[in-house]
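Late entry, evening session. Most of the bench is empty. Finally got around to the prediction I had been postponing all week. Sequence below, unchanged from the version circulated by S.P.
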Amino acid sequence: MYSRNVSFKLKAKSTAEFTKILEGEVIPLLRRQRGFDDAISFIAPERNEAVTISLWNKKEDAETYNQKTYPEILRALARVIEGTPKVETFEVGNSTSHQIAASAVGS
């Protein structure tokens, strides 16, 4: 399992709109992607920052999403973010909700 961690700088007082876009546009798009498993978002309104983590069954699925659908996501979020989001990918090492143990990494 792989994760895409995306850090956003939000425009001032835009956290409610960011959440609305995630729920109404981003999550529905993610659910239609092959290999998508889960997403979670974190928001720090006092710092105008957000982080989203999406989980993918295979690295290839996350890469396909990044190339084909992520640009559409950025367009949807353009009115509430500043600058270019930072994207990082990881192999999932542990997850209690997905029953993944550390020994599974690299298998």
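Two things to note before I forget:
The first strand starts at residue 2 and ends at 10.
The helical segments are 15-31, 59-68, 70-77.
Will write this up properly tomorrow.
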